[in-house]
């Protein structure tokens, strides 16, 4: 199946106030058209299937910010667990109505995270598809639960599902509460750059366009019951990430006050902060005939340039809605 020749129901950002506002911001750019429905609402989900009659589903809808899940886990259980259940049931009811060929070709692609595998120590080998689940935050536990539901619907009902687990994404349109957009925007504005703990936690960074390409390959070629661990082999400590952003910005937009590393502030650590995530993507690269094109350095350069070129987008988000304490305030 080629994703470009078939209708794929891309379920994303359809949940709750914060995500709906994200959708409005994205839709305001004129580049997107969204069907909005609450993922927890089974009837609304069934209506989406009847309207679109998709050949496949890409399930990207999730509450995704770990800090928010620590502040308020309930919405993560609703969206990520109950929402995935409701989407699976709507997909199953629709799938049962399909003709045999369409039924065989149908795919339910669940997009998930490497956080379900827990935390690595410095010398542990990277996660693979066979790493046991060991989630530790309310967010990762809710995603782990959703992964298990998706596999259960394959084994129990025969719904042709598969799962991709990916490393940290970054790039254009990244919501300004996560580390990279938050630090980029704060650095542009000359504000302090909050680094949790000592800044030695490691994340493995995948440029969003590389991930999108992998997801298209996966929905075209993914085998039901399979798992694909997707990453770019670009692990960096958080301090390296922040310093790289500062250096790129100093080059693209020099600050008369001096190098931006002066803005780095070490703040209280995230409770239960997972030390290190990293994926070995060998199986996915081979099975999906895909490989990430960006190194962290090429991807971050494009990202910083994009935030410089798209101030209107993030300024309006910061000004209108998200001035709360999860948006770049230094907490000490
Ligand atoms: C917001 C913030 C974060 N950090 C640290 C915490 C992490 O060690 C690292 C990245 O944090 P962020 O919240 O951007 O992303 P993760 O907690 O690694 O999780 C992200 O990647 C996974 C795979 C998903 O599945 C999540 O959905 C996604 O949000 O920077 C700071 O030091 N300062 C800050 O102000």
UniProtKB/TrEMBL annotation:
Enzyme class: lyase
Cofactor entry: NAD(+)
Pfam families per the UniProt record, alphabetical: GDP_Man_Dehyd
Record flagged with keyword Lyase: yes
An annotated GO BP: nucleotide-sugar metabolic process
InterPro entries per record: dTDP_Gluc_deHydtase, NAD(P)-bd_dom, NAD(P)-bd_dom_sf
Superkingdom of origin organism: Bacteria
Lineage: Bacteria, Pseudomonadati, Pseudomonadota, Alphaproteobacteria, Acetobacterales
GO molecular function list: dTDP-glucose 4,6-dehydratase activity
Catalytic activity, as annotated: dTDP-alpha-D-glucose = dTDP-4-dehydro-6-deoxy-alpha-D-glucose + H2O
Annotated NAD(P)-binding domain residues: 6-303
Protein name (record): dTDP-glucose 4,6-dehydratase
